């Protein structure tokens, strides 16, 4: 008899199985096993927010395996051990509900267990201390899921109708997009302001040099802009050159600098971005690997605690272990008298989880380095040092300020310096600084010994011009920090929010800074004009507080949903009568300064060049909306048909952003130029130029799209050539002996090994991904097709392929869908032959194929040859005949969904019991 434990990932399952032994069967759910189907009506506010859940083949398969393990092992207990957060609680709830739907839990005790680290001690403690599912946490998940669904499926259609060319709008993503767009607007209207400073070199009587800056002139303290131009600066410089200076005052003080707390999710993403250059997605992927465990000496060991947290406290035993390590490694002087206690300052922070820390402080970065890849090693080093430093003694710095005055006392200069008196935690960790040499230069800026009344010798006096700088664009680190300060979103969502904005082409990341695309600015302008409340940071933060109250059991989730939906529905209804002209006017007014910046020559930036040349009046350029999106057009349309793409115009009238090719150099193998260009579908690398072959036929140059997230500004010639030479061979699969390659496809970079293919995650680099990561990704890949053998009649190959609507069998040009629930890997040749004989149909014609050609076409690729269950294939010659009749005989089958029974509306209003959430409401 074995008990069953369910976790989320197979890597975690393998590790935990070793810890628990043969008395347990540990299975993975592979994340969520079901979700709201992406169609209208999955959440029904009119039925008190009843929900329909559906599961894909993978989810059904995993739950089926869990049910089989419970039955075959004669289990008495089921332990739901998914991640210790809201999403993990929801996954456990979904698994339990689906198992109950299969009647697989009869006589089974269901327990929920959580652990913050994957160590034997933590797992055994969790098994010994199970609990029930956290109902308020599940309610919070349901509320968030319903909110995001209703906002997306209600607001997005409004965008599509009123703002052609836009994508979709998310509840939190729209607010993050607004922050990026508003920062860009601040930068555009920013006008630099000139100011000057005056500095002088000095030498002490002993000959030691130092520098001092002018702080007082004519007996008055200088503010930043008191020397606004060169004339004022030269007058101040002359006053310094005319004076003889003495040391008027020396001020010394010792300051303490306390160590930062251990990492939360957001601070880990921020520091990883600043120090290591890792994006939020890459950071979370690497942290997940360190949490789930790496192979160290034949044993899989979890190196860090759970990485999705906003708590900064650590377990008492972990603090004691770290303090013991500090004392042994650095000496008693580096150990504070009492352990340090931290509390989060972030808005809406929940202290439910520990901070991110090493599971065992004795596993130093040096001792485990050989077991980690370079990225894992750098991130673990960061986590380990931050956690240990948080329990170290404060650093002490001596700061010195020396004031110099002339004989009249009306001209004064100040020299400053500081020196580390005791390095404390700085011996191990420096926040925001990765280069110890630069840190030392900055923090050990010392001044030579001086005494009051001493007269140093003045050297060169210099007047320097400066200009104020606009606020910087948001980086991933600074945007995450801003969202956390405002209380927008949760730590676990930041990485996906930033990636979603890029995937929708609302923003782009250049030089590690977010720049809004014009599409993103249009969406933001539309939402702030007509849905101001729902992209307001205060409203979103207040809603987050309510969601946190739900998770704490202080609010009813349906009550929160009713309040939100009543007002949101009214706001959406108010746009039904909104005219496109109203939208254009609002957007034109809002974005006019962006698309029509003032010209240096003083001419009207909105003047139509065609109307001006033809002396036609009324030729004013403005924003226009067409079926494919927005563009710039003339008010004299249709008399004037001048248009231009929606790009910012520079001061000289040229379109900014439509830059020409940028040469990277010459390919050493072909001698052709390699350049970066912008096309209608984004940036791409190109080798050579179009030409003609020996027969006079036009030839196209080789091209390769830049993967999303690849910075064109930092792209080198070598990396561009590597892109142009894709696919790239990574190695040989150890089990199948097939070549593993990385390549660029229509939907982005992917891996391929024989019949297996798998898309790369946003944090993976197609040019540098190695065998370990490739094997990890391919472990979850499903084959596109399986060859079963030869048909007994004609000897032709019989295959089972994975198509858009499920697996199907193919023999030549005949196909047949596999019965629902049948796995293609278990399908046999005999079954396929019988199925094709009974239900086989000719391949459907390619899209756009003419019916007049007649006959079946050559079998296309598997993705194009997928049989559609909603409309069975017909021979091409009969494609014209009675399509309606054929469609009527084969109605579309709905997607697999949880079986639900209709409930009366009166019943829906009652709070559901936790166990009754199996189906539709909840």
CATH homologous superfamily placement of the largest domain: Topoisomerase I, domain 2
CATH topology of the largest domain: Topoisomerase I, domain 2
Q: State the end-to-end distance.
A: 34 Å
The average pLDDT is 82
Rg, Cα atoms, Å: 33 Å
Main pleated-sheet profile: 7 strands, antiparallel
Q: Estimate the strand proportion.
A: 15-25%
The tally of strands reads 35
Helix content bin: 25-40%
CATH architecture of the largest domain: Orthogonal Bundle
**How many H/I helical runs?**
25
Identify the overall geometry: globular
Number of domains: 6
Helix vs. strand class? alpha+beta
Summary keywords:
single chain; 922 residues; alpha+beta; Rossmann fold; Topoisomerase I, domain 2; Topoisomerase I, domain 3; 6 domains; seven-stranded antiparallel beta sheet; five-stranded antiparallel beta sheet; 35 strands; 33% helix; globular; disordered C terminus
Please characterize this protein's 3D structure.
With 922 residues, this protein is α+β, with helices and mostly antiparallel strands. It has six domains: 131 residues, Rossmann fold (3-Layer(aba) Sandwich), CATH 3.40.50.140; 151 residues, Topoisomerase I, domain 2 (Orthogonal Bundle); 135 residues, Topoisomerase I, domain 3 (Distorted Sandwich); 129 residues, Topoisomerase I, domain 4, CATH 1.10.290; 117 residues, no CATH class; 96 residues, no CATH class. It is built from 25 helices and 35 strands. Strands 7, 8, 9, 10, 13, 14 and 15 form a seven-stranded antiparallel β-sheet that branches. Strands 31-32-33-34-35 form a five-stranded antiparallel β-sheet, covered by helices on one side. A four-stranded parallel β-sheet has the order 2-1-5-6, sandwiched between helices. Strand 3 and strand 4 form a beta hairpin. The radius of gyration is 33 Å and the shape is globular.
């Amino acid at each position: 008899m074995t008990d069953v434990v369910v976790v989320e990932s197979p890597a975690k399952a393998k590790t935990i199985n070793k810890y628990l032994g043969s008395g347990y069967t540990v299975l993975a759910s592979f994340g969520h096993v079901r979700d709201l189907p992406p169609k209208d009506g999955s959440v029904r506010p009119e039925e008190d927010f009843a929900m329909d859940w559906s599961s894909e083949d993978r989810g059904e398969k995993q739950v089926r395996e869990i049910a089989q393990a419970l039955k075959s092992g004669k289990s008495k207990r089921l332990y739901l051990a998914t991640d210790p957060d809201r999403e993990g609680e929801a996954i456990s709830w979904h698994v339990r509900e689906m198992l109950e739907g299969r009647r697989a839990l009869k006589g089974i005790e269901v327990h929920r267990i959580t652990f913050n680290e994957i160590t034997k001690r933590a797992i055994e403690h969790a098994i010994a201390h199970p609990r029930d599912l956290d109902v308020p946490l599940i309610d919070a998940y349901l509320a968030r899921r319903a909110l995001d669904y209703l906002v997306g499926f209600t607001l997005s259609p409004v965008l599509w109708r009123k703002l052609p060319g836009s994508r979709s709008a998310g509840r939190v993503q729209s607010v993050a997009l607004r922050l990026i767009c508003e920062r860009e607007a601040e930068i555009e209207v920013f006008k630099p302001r000139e100011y000057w400073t005056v500095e002088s070199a000095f030498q002490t009587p002993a000959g030691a040099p130092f520098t001092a800056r002018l702080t007082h002139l004519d007996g008055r303290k200088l503010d930043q802009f008191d020397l606004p131009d060169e004339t004022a600066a030269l007058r101040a410089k002359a006053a310094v050159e005319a004076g003889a200076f003495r040391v008027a005052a020396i001020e010394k003080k010792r300051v303490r600098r306390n160590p930062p707390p251990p990492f939360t999710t957001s601070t880990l993403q921020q520091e990883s971005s600043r120090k290591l250059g890792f994006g939020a997605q890459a950071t979370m992927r690497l942290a997940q690997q360190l949490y789930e465990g790496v192979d160290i000496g034949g044993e899989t060991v979890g190196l860090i605690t759970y990485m999705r947290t906003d708590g900064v406290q650590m377990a008492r035993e972990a603090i004691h272990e770290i303090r013991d390590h500090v004392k042994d490694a650095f000496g008693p002087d580096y150990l504070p008298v009492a352990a340090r206690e931290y509390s989060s300052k972030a808005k809406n922070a929940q202290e439910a989880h520990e901070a991110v820390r090493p599971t065992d402080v004795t596993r130093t970065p040096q001792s485990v380095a050989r077991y980690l890849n370079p990225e894992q090693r750098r991130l673990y080093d960061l986590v380990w040092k931050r956690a240990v430093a948080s329990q170290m003694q404060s650093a002490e710095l001596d700061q010195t300020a020396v004031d110099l005055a002339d004989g009249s006392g009306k001209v004064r200069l100040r020299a400053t310096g500081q020196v580390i008196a005791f390095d404390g935690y700085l011996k191990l960790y420096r926040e925001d600084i990765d280069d110890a040499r630069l840190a030392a230069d900055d923090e050990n800026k010392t001044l030579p010994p001086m005494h009051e009344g001493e007269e140093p010798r003045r050297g060169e006096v210099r007047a320097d011009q400066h200009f104020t700088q606009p606020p910087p664009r948001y980086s991933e680190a600074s945007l995450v920090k801003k969202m956390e300060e405002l209380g927008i979103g949760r730590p676990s969502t930041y990485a996906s929010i930033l990636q979603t904005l890029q995937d929708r082409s609302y923003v782009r990341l250049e030089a590690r800074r977010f720049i809004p695309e014009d599409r993103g600015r249009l969406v933001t302008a539309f939402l702030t004009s007509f849905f101001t409340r729902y992209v307001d940071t205060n409203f979103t933060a207040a809603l987050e507080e309510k969601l946190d109250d739900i998770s704490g059991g202080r609010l009813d989730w349906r009550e929160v949903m009713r309040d939100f939906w009543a007002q949101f529905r009214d706001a959406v209804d108010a746009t039904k009568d909104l005219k496109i002209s109203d939208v254009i006017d609002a957007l034109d007014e809002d974005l006019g300064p962006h698309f029509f910046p003032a010209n240096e020559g003083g001419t009207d930036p909105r003047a139509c060049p065609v109307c001006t040349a033809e002396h036609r009046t009324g030729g004013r350029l403005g924003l226009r909306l067409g079926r494919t999106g927005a563009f710039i057009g003339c008010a004299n349309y249709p008399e004037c048909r001048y248009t231009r793409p929606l790009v910012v115009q520079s001061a000289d009238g040229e379109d900014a952003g439509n830059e020409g090719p940028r040469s990277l150099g010459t390919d050493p193998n072909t001698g052709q130029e390699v350049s970066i260009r912008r096309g209608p579908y984004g940036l791409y690398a190109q080798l050579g130029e179009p030409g003609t072959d020996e027969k006079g036929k036009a030839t196209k140059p080789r091209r390769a799209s830049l993967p999303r997230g690849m910075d064109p500004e930092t792209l080198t010639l070598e990396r561009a050539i590597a892109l142009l030479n894709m696919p790239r061979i990574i190695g040989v699969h150890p089990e199948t002996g097939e070549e593993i390659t990385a390549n660029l496809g229509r939907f982005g970079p992917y891996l391929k090994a024989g019949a297996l293919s798998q898309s790369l995650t946003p944090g993976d680099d197609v040019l540098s991904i190695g065998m370990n990561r490739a094997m990890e990704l391919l472990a979850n890949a499903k084959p596109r097709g399986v060859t079963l053998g030869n048909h007994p009649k004609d000897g032709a190959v019989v295959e089972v392929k994975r198509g858009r609507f499920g697996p199907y069998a193919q023999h030549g040009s005949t196909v047949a869908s596999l019965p629902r629930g049948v796995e293609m890997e278990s399908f046999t040749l005999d079954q396929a032959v019988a199925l094709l004989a009974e239900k086989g149909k000719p391949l459907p014609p390619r899209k756009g194929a003419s019916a007049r050609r007649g006959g079946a076409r050559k079998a296309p690729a598997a993705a194009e040859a997928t049989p559609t269950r909603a409309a069975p294939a017909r021979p091409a010659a009969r494609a014209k005949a009675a399509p309606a009749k054929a469609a009527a005989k084969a109605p579309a089958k709905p997607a697999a969904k949880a079986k639900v029974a209709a409930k009366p509306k009166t019943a829906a209003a009652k709070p559901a019991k936790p166990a009754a959430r199996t189906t539709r409401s909840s």
